[in-house]
Each structure stands twice: as structure tokens, then as C-alpha cells.
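[job 0412] stage=fold_complex status=start
inputs:
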Amino acid sequence: MSNRPVNHARAAEHFLEDAPHLKFHDERLWDMRQKRDAQMHMLPEWQELREEASRIKEHTLAQLPEYLEQFEENAKKNGIHVHWARDGAEHNRIVGDILKAHGARSLIKSKSMVTEECDMRPYLEKQGVTVTETDLGERIQQLDDQLPSHIVVPAVHKLTSDVAKIFAKDYHTDPNIRDPHLLAEAQRQAARPVILHADAGMTGGNFVVAETGTFVVCTNEGNADLSATVPNLHIATIGIERLVPRMADLGVFIRLLSRSALGSPITQYTTHFRGPQDGGEMHVVLVDNGRSHRLGMDDFWTSLKCIRCGACMNTCPVYRRSGGLSYGAVYSGPIGAIIDPTFNERKYSTLPFASTLNGSCTNVCPVKIDIHEQLYKWRRVLVQHREIPFVKREIMYMAGKLMGQPKMYRAALRATETSLESLPRFALYNWLNPWGKHRELPHPIKQTFHDWYKKNRATPAATAPESGK
Amino acid sequence: MKIGLFIPCYIDAFYPEAGIATLELLEKLGQDVEYPLDQTCCGQPMGNSGCNSDAAAAEALFVRNFARFDKIVMPSGSCTHHVRDNFDAIPQTDEVRHVRENTFELVEFLHDILKVEAFPWAEFNHTVGLHNSCGTLRALRTASMSELGEKPFSKPMDLLKKVKGIRFVTPKRPDECCGFGGTFSVTEEAISARMGVDKVRDHHDAGAEYIVSADSSCMMHQQGCAERAGVPIRFIHIAQILNGAAQ
Amino acid sequence: MSARDTILQALRANRPTPQNHPLPPVATLGDLDASRERFITNLKILGGDVLEPVEGETLDQAILRRHPDAKVICSNVPEAKGTLPVERIKTPQDAATVDVAVVRAAFGIAEMGSIFLSEAQLPINSFAHLAQHIVVLLSTGELTANMHTTYQTRPEFKSARYGVLMSGPSATADIQGVLIRGAQGVRSLSVWFT
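[job 0412] stage=fold_complex status=done
writing structure:
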């Protein structure tokens, strides 16, 4: 994996050039935000729910080892095989070994961000296992060899015509189809035989209940239930932070999840797995992959509260205009920008800067993660770790020095030519130049406020001497 | 009550009329206001860029300039947000705490501290769209936020409604960020400008002749975007309207 | 050290102070109306429908009226005969031939219009998903108000190995945001009150 910092700005610029895609993307996600708002307005208890969800999650994270042990004990009692994976590679090995032990050559799976984190598909494919995504959006992304661009609607950056082209290649449908119904039906028809003949099924898990050893999967298409109930081998890959203590806690989270995500009251399917079906075998792989480390980060551990609803992406004005792929990471948007640097600080060092810090993400977050404040804190950390460009660091250093010296500052304002002498001028101008690319500069003025004040108000006695301290 | 007036660097250099209006308005309201001449910047650009330690000199100077005042008032939401919430590059002495606790954005100050009932001198016969900067909206909370479903309120609107002749329109996405974002405006130039154009078009489509805001930094960016894209809309700081701007 | 112990040890070393984050008491918030009317309103929002009996009509007749083209109707309830004896569904794959599956839900949730099915209500779990359509019998006496009351009062969550809340038929909006009812699971879900 390349360590080069993701160039979000350039990817965004590219995204902006395609007007029809940009327009749809922005409007579609904004519409999801509006629908979320409508749901919120229907529930006077909305803020209480968020507070409850946040407190339950914070409690659970503080007691995570105990709850994981409790889950494991109960799950095993119910006949579930429980595995632990320190990282993506270990997760992939575990899944590969389970499949090998069953002689399984085909795996159907529903959407799971953790398997994306682990980059599982290429690993299994190398072992001769055919992996088929069954979620429509995720399948489109698989066929197009792209990461999901959104954690809930993976192909939201594509138009019907794009999907028609992709399906034409793989499903031999008409590339000129413009009716999404026909394409969805093509997916159903293509997926059915694969599902019926699959050796194994895989799901993720939205919530894990310690008290009962249950894991819960929330989907709309029915593909997760098909993946879990048709083959007799079910493997669930779940991040260790997904725990809740009690069955009753699900009431809070299920009420928030789909309302926040899509603006629908609940997902069409909310499925509770507590043990293998008759004649079946069930495995749960609990994945750490950096989570235990993140739990130790004072400023960032609450990002583990995330329930992956995507509301922060839908509301983010930057995300809506740059697309998920511009983040160059498994997790995009505001939540991605605070999680991704924990995986690779250098590569994702640019993401916390891909934000105006407007704070809308924090307000929509159903578990009250202070996303924009964490973005702000990440910037500090990245500067301390020298993960921001040299020119920017120098400019801030020089600006900071200048701002501490009123006389120099005034002189600089009067003659920008002679200011910032120790900074190579080309660097400063190069850095500030982009302002004018799509914007006019502020108009010239006759007099600064400072000069006006001196002329019109100030008396020598009224002001402290400039060289006083 | 002795008031220290802070004029952010971009207002000083590009929008002095907003600074003058702020001062005159406070004076009209009978306040004892002084502008310390040694001021430069609150430290926000460095802080927002993550270069927090580089903000230390600016913050120390700010405290030297303003510690002797009872209240510090500034016509800028984002600077107020920095001083109040992020001003920690320097040791937090009693003096620093005093400054941080007593710094107010102009609208807050007029609305919450002075509780101004009327601006008899103010008349503005135009249709305006209000732009709340994200700093005033989500950090200072001078208006209700659409994401929270709270009971609608707006301190800037409360003040503007006292102005004779003024008419209001609401854009489709009133709370959407305009894309300025400090250094974001250059490091993510393309997105920033796109957000700015979308913002000014939204106001223009709603029928606004003017965008009025308590933050000149957002308007500097929006104006640049509007002029380049040829969106015919004008910009004015809320202090200028409340002070009875020449039209 | 095993992966399990490595992870648990790291979590113990890194976690925030547990005493600072007590577990809040179980919450029961919001509308506690458990009426059939509320259930129906929400069922329809999620794309489900009510199969209203016409005077003198049997359930089998009502199903045929709703699904006139159905060839294979398979019922797991005594109230309907169907066309295929449910004993013929032996493997998960067998359910793929079914046009209309008929089942009884353990309960319904008024807040969401959801119905609950588990292995106790299904001949085989895939029955509810491979069938093209589903008709769900629901007793008005088995309605609970909202998600809080559901998880607090329904015993099924502590006994079922597989338990699904279905809220309308399968759906997707993954292609250009167009909502399509009938994605990969059932194309329609109809509730027949008993």
C-alpha cells in the first residue's frame, strides 16, 4: 500500500468537473439529510435518544473487554464459533481456513465495511474462492472494481447510465437501459442462482448484544438474510466496538439507525442471529484491526461509538461535492477523516483538512461523536507529527510570528512587497494563488480601519504604546 | 463597562466600513469603546491549521491588548469562537481566562448583554438573505440549527427585524456552509469555490439583493465567488445595517 | 499470546476509566400507542400492505385475489391450504420455487409496521426470503408499541436463534436514488389480521 498522502483536493477538483454526476450526488445526499430531518421532527424524544445512545456506547467501550467476554461465552453456549483477529491479515486467514475446512469455493456476502478494511476479497480470490457481493450497490462497486464511496449507499456517485454500462458487460443486459427497475431486476436474476449454489454466506454485524450472544444485521434488500439462511455455513465479520450490553439497548439504536441513515423509520430487515440454523454452522470473527489502539487515544476514542449510519456524509457539504472516492480510503466523509488517520497517519494526513469545520456532522451524529472537534484536534496532532506540507507549516510559522509583532504587522500591511522577508515569496504566492482561480480578490480600500481610527478617534493617552512590552 | 473593540485582520484590511459601523453603532448605544492600536489577530488561522503553537504570539498579544477591558467585542463569529473555545496556545492564567470569558461577537453582545430594543436610526429598504457563519451558528449558537430540530430562534434576525424597511428571504439550504473555512479556501480551492457559488446562487434564487452576515470572512469568499460567476448580489455586514447604512 | 488475549489485554490497558461511564437505565421513550391503526400506517410507509378480507372470502381466496398469477402457494399456517404442502420444503434451496409464502408472525410493532418471524414460525429460514411474495398472519393482540417495548417485553429475542423483523418487502434505492420495492428478498409483504 502506498504511503503517499491522499490528494483529496485534486480528486475533488476532478469530481467537480462532471456536472450531471455532481448535481445528482449533491442533491441525492441532501435529500437523505432532509428525510432524516423529517424523521427527527416526528420524534420529540430525538435528542434524548441520541444522548442515551451516546451514553450506552461510551459505557460499553469503557467495559469492552468484559462485554466481549460475556458475548463470547453466550455465543458459544448457543453454538456459535467465536474467533478473534488482531488485524486484517489474521481475519482473512481465519475466514480462509473456515472455508477451506468446508471445501467451500463460493462465498456470497452482504455489505461489510470491516471486510473492506481487511481487503478480504483479493485474499480469498487468490485462494480460489469466488466472492460475490449481494448488496446491489456493493455489487456494482465490485464489478467496477471500486471501493464503496459511501458506507450506506456504496454506488451513490453513479448514475443509472453508469450502472447500465457495468451490467451490460457482466450481466449482458442492454447498455442503454435507463430504468433503474430493470437494472435492479437484472441484479435479482443474476444473484439468485449464485445464492442458491453458494457454499457459504457472510454478513457483517451492526450490533452485538453481550447479554444474549446475539448479533444484529440491518439491511434493506434482503440480501443479508439470503446470504445467511440459504447456505448452511454463515460467517459474520464484526468489529469489536459493535457491542451493546443489553437486548433492551437495541431499542435506542434501531430507532436511530435508519432514520439517521436514510430517513426511513427502520431498515426493511432487522435480523437477530443467536445461533446456527438447523443443520448449519455459524462463525463470528471479532476484528480489532486498530480499534484497541484507538480506544487509548484520549481525543479520538469516542469515534468508536460510530454505528455507520452515514448521516455525517449526507450532511457534509464537502463530501457531497467531492464524492466518497476522493478520500482514497475505506471510510470516507467526516467519520472517515477522523478514523482513517488511525490506520495510516501519513497516507490520510490530508483528510482532516478536507473540511471547513462547519460542525453539521456533529449535529446529525446519532451517537453524538464530536466529529468536527476531532477533525480540529487531528490537525494539531498531524502538525505535531510533521505530517502537513512544509510550505504550509512555514507560512503558519511566519504568520504566527508576524501576528505577535504589531509594528512589523502594520509595516507588512502597508507594503506587502517587503513583508514576510524570510519566506521565499514564490512559496507564499504559490500557496495563496488558488484563491483567484474561481474567485475575485477583495476590492482595494482607501484606508484600513486602523488608520481610520487613528485619524478619527485615537488620542495618544487612550492607547497603550506599541512598544510597551 | 469599558469595552475593548477587536477588529479582525481581514476587516481591518479589506472591509474597514464594517469595523467603522461596529464602532459607531456601539457608540450610538452609549458604550465606552476603545480600539487598542497594537492589535493584530486572534490566532485563529494558525489554530485552525493545526499549527497551534504558532498561535501563541498572537494570543499573548491579544491578551496584552484586551485584559484591561470588562468586555471585548468583535464583529466576527469565527474569531469569537477561537478566543472562547480554542485559545489555548498560551498558559491559561487568570488574565487569559478573563479575556476568554468576556469576549463577545457583536450580535451576541447587542442581543444578550445590551439587550437592544430598537435601532431608530436604521432603515434598509432591501430584500436580504441572512448568512450565519458556521462559527456563529454551531459554535456560538446565535441561531437554532436545522440538524437539531430545536425551537427556531435567531439572534441576528431578532436584531434585523427592528430595522425599518428591511425584507427577508430564506434560501433553500440556510444552514449550509459557504465553503470559506480559512485556509481550506486555498488548500481545497475547487470545493471551496463551488460551495461559495452554490451559496450565493441559493440566496439570489430566493430573491435576495443583499447577503447580510455577522462574518466578513465568509462574505469576502462569497463576494469573490459571486463576482467571478456573475451572480448579481451584494454583501453587507450586519453592523452596517444596524448602524443605519447609507444605501 | 492468543489473538483473543492480546486484544483483551490491549483493551484493558487503553480503555477510559469505567467508573466515569456508568450504564444508563433502560430507556422507554416516545409514543406508546400499540394500536392496529398505527401499525397499518407505518406498514404502508415501508411498502407493506394489509390484505383486507372481502365478505365471505377465505384466506386462500384472498391470497389468490392478491396474487392471481401465483402458481406455487406454500402455507405454514393451518388457516390457509395453499398449493404446495409445506413438508415439501426440506432444504433452504427448496423455498426458491415458492411464489407466495404464508406464515404467521409472532408479533408486530406499531411504531414500524414490522412483523417478527423466527424458526418457530418458518418451515425453514430461507422460506421468508426466497419466496417471491409473503403473506403474514398477525393477531391484533400481538402488537407492541415501539422498539423499546419490543426488546423489553418480547421473549422471542432470548429464545430464537434466527429472528427477523421484516418491515415491508425488500427494497433498494442503490441506483440513482430510485426506490424499488422488491429488491432481492420478497417483492411484496401483505398482512392478514386475525
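[job 0412] summary: Chain B has a mean pLDDT of 96.
[job 0412] exit 0
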